[in-house]
Amino acid sequence: MRDSENEVRRRVREGDREAFAQLYEEFARAVYNHGLRLTGDWSTAEEVMSETFLTAWRTRDRVLEEGGSLLPWLLGIATHKADNARRGQRRRQLFLARQPQPPAEEDFAPRTVGRIDDARRLRAVQAALGRLRRQEREVLALCVWSGLDYRETAEALGIAVGTVRSRLSRARRKLARLAEENPELPAGRGEMTSAAAIAALPVREELT
């Protein structure tokens, strides 16, 4: 497995377009999901995904020839893109808040109910994550939802493993406290999204 991963690294580093296309096929969904959890917006998550792979292609020469899966590298890029997107969202929200509200239009499309339900769950996640500092939110998203272990998360963010552990620990304590203070925070159907549930989700152990 490691030899195969190192071969992918070598080919990506050398600009092999087929290898990069395979990288996209394998990890595009994971990058999109990571962007969605950090930004809370579907269209923004798509932009994060596109910008992540564009940046990855432009900076492919920075890929080390050995080191295993390239997912931590991609999610590290996506984390920075999502952070930039969140700042842009805040600026747009402040601008829109000063504008008159347009009249509401009803949408009777059959998929509307499911879309609203998805949006409600996403808002529940964002409500919990919004109480965390950016660094804590990023570590939680990488370790808990993206399934990276401590070492891979450290690689993605360019920080020490001990820093990952301490940030994750603080994030879990804050979420547990939030759950105690707000026991009615919605959990979401079919997905654990309450503060208590998020805090309790497991983290993959480091591979040796």
> How far apart are the first and last residues' alpha carbons, in Å?
14 Å
The description of the largest β-sheet is: none
Indicate the mean pLDDT. Answer: 80
- The number of helical elements comes to 9
Name the CATH homologous superfamily of the largest domain: RNA polymerase sigma factor, region 2, helix turn helix motif
Give the count of structural domains.
2
Hey, roughly how much beta strand do the residues contain?
Answer: under 5%
Report the CATH C-level class of the largest domain: Mainly Alpha
CATH architecture of the largest domain: Orthogonal Bundle
**Helix content percent band:** 55-70%
Tell me the number of strands: 0
User: Spans of 5+ residues with little confidence (pLDDT < 50)?
Assistant: 186-192
Look up the CATH topology of the largest domain: Rna Polymerase Sigma Factor, Chain: A
Shape estimate: globular
Please state the structural category.
mainly alpha
User: Secondary-structure element order, as H and E?
Assistant: HHHHHHHHH
Rounded to an integer in angstroms, the radius of gyration calculated over CA atoms is 19 Å
